[in-house]
Amino acid sequence: MTEAVTRAHRDEWARVVSALTRRFGDLDVAEEAAAEAFATAVERWPADGVPPNPGAWLTTTAQRKAVDRLRREAKRDDKHREALVVHEPQPTGADGAIDDDRLRLLFTCCHPALAVQARVALTLRLVGGLTVPEIARAFLVAESAVGQRITRAKAKIKAARVPYRVPSAEDLPARVSSVLTVLFLVFNEGYLATGTGPVRPDLTAEAIRLTRLLHALLPHDGEVTGLLALMLLTEARRPARVAGDELVPLDEQDRGAWDHALIAEGHALVRERLAAGVAPGRYQVLAAINAVHTSARHMHDTDWSQVLALYDLLVRIDPSPVVALNRAVAVAELDGPEVALAVVDRLEPELAGYHAFHATRADLLRRLGRRAESRAAYDRAVELTGNTAEIACLVRRRDQRA
Amino acid sequence: MQYLFSVVDDGTGITGPEVDAAIDVFNDRLRAGGHWVFAGGLASPDAATVVDNRDGAALVTDGPFLESKEYLAGFWVVEAPDLDVALALASAGSRSCHRKVEVRPFR
Fold it and tell me: Any idea where the RNA polymerase sigma factor 70 region 4 type domain is (chain A) (predicted)?
């Protein structure tokens, strides 16, 4: 029975919150009523049985709870009386193609007028259904801080009147990009968690679930497809990415342990975007790079010229030093470590404080037989790394060559 | 719903007839769209005087309340149905006057 409630929570939470937000025009009311409805389900379903349509039952129950609450408050306070007025559903965008409350909710939670950390917390709470303590644990911050971020964000949405609707076609690309930033942040926090533990599978799974939802709602958006593919192809390597408490780099991973179902799904999405024949965005190129890596049965089978061509494309979209650093890894495979080292060294002014810069340098120096310099670079990388599993990997690579 | 657009000058803002003309075009757009409430440009902060009469004994001091590199150069009060409409207008406003614009809702 708890399983039925858990499943309903996973499948229906966002639908209940988003439907209530549209009806009552208030995120606070929607969140609280949804939580009450699920608490009622925990009480009632074991005795009454699971209703035939759990989602409809939960939405109806939550609506009753919300009306009860607003009536109670209206007796005390005239200001709440206006909230009882049922909001007319907003007309959909001119194209009218996308009409799902969950999409409205996602766009509202990821509004660019909110600070990025607030967007993340609000999205995980209102769309993902995570509790405040769960979010706090995932990001290693105090519960009170998460609670405050969510409260402030909701207050701003109300005071500044952030609209509850899917943005116009003109604004859509920028707004989708804001949603993708949030989802990618959640995924990366799970994938390269700060502190102890190499990965937080709960966070990567949540990010993938929300991106799947966004993809189902916006199936023709190339960057949404690209981000989903990128996440799937990254997640597929998770079983081989950690050995004990240590991170295993790509070239040492047991490729037989990769999740081949996820890889097949990711490859299909990448092929779909290639067939679309539209100039790809950042996430699509990153997904394509991961598709090349996951196509190789052995590290030495990797089609590095294709990887490099994709990085050249990525540099044009995103000329950041971090992209240039990753590109240098492909350069090393094609033109040798000496050429790559020259490329990497040019990035020092911008990346001197970034652990991956020193780790990449250390590896290239090692391959060139410059051991003392390699060791010093590994030491610097270890100093700058926040993740214990990554430190373990760096220390082992450093000492292997000592 | 009304929003205050505060025009923030950080010392890099340019002035001149071209900027004035661009602002006029933007103001016409506000009026045509039914967004116009009120607007005004302010004299330099050097012209400011602070009055404090909280205790019933008015104290008059020269200069702005806060000395800062960034200062309020002017403002618009606009009518907009929601923040997305307000932000789109503010974006055009910022472009017209070559300065940053802070968007803040009225209570």
Answer: 106-157
Is A162 within 8 Å of B105 when comparing Cβ atoms? no
Distance CA A347, CA B17 (A): 44
Contacts with A159 from chain B: Cβ below 8 Å: 105, 107
| A86 class by beta-carbon count within 10 Å (0-12 exposed, 13-18 middle, 19+ buried) | exposed
Q: Which amino acid is at A10?
A: R
In sequence order, the 6+-apart residues with CB closer than 8 A to the CB of A357 are: A325, A344, A347, A348, A351, A381
Q: How far is A162 from chain B (nearest CA, A)?
A: 5
- Would you call B82 and A167 a contact, using CB atoms and an 8 Å cutoff? no
CB contact under 8 A, B105 and A167: no
Place of tokens 């909001």: A87
Helices A337-345 & A321-335, crossing angle to 10 degrees? 160
| Cβ contact A161–B107 (<8 Å) | no
Please tell me the predicted confidence (pLDDT) of residue A95: 42
Question: Quick check: A147 and A100 in contact, CB under 8 A?
Answer: no
pLDDT tens-digit profile of A257-313? 999 999 999 999 999 999 998 999 999 999 999 999 999 999 889 999 999 999 999
DSSP A100: -
pLDDT of residue A90 exceeding 50: no
Topology of domain B2-105 in CATH is: Alpha-Beta Plaits (3.30.70)
A42/A37 Cα distance (integer angstroms): 9
Residues of chain A with Cβ-Cβ distance to B86 below 8 Å are 160
Give A60 to chain B, closest Cα distance, Å: 29
The HSE-up count of residue B69 (CA atoms within 13 Å, CB side) is: 4
pLDDT given at position A100: 81
Query: What are the structure tokens assigned to B49, written together?
Result: 């005087």
Residue B96 CA to residue B75 CA, distance in Å, equals: 13
- State how far the Cα of A329 lies from the Cα of A342, in Å rounded to an integer: 12
Set of chain B residues whose Cβ sits within 8 Å of the Cβ of A161: 1, 81-83, 105
* Three-class secondary structure of residue A115 per DSSP: coil
Alpha-carbon span A40 to A34, nearest angstrom: 10
Q: Residue A160: its chain B contacts at CB < 8 A?
A: 83, 86, 103-105
Q: Which residues of A touch B83 (CB under 8 A)?
A: 111, 113, 160-163
- CB of B107 closer than 8 Å to CB of B72: no
Do B83 and A171 make contact, defined as CB atoms within 8 angstroms? no
What's the N-to-C CA distance of chain A in angstroms?
57
Bigger pLDDT: A1 or A387?
A387
pLDDT, averaged across chain B: 94
Assigned token pair, A364: 């290239």
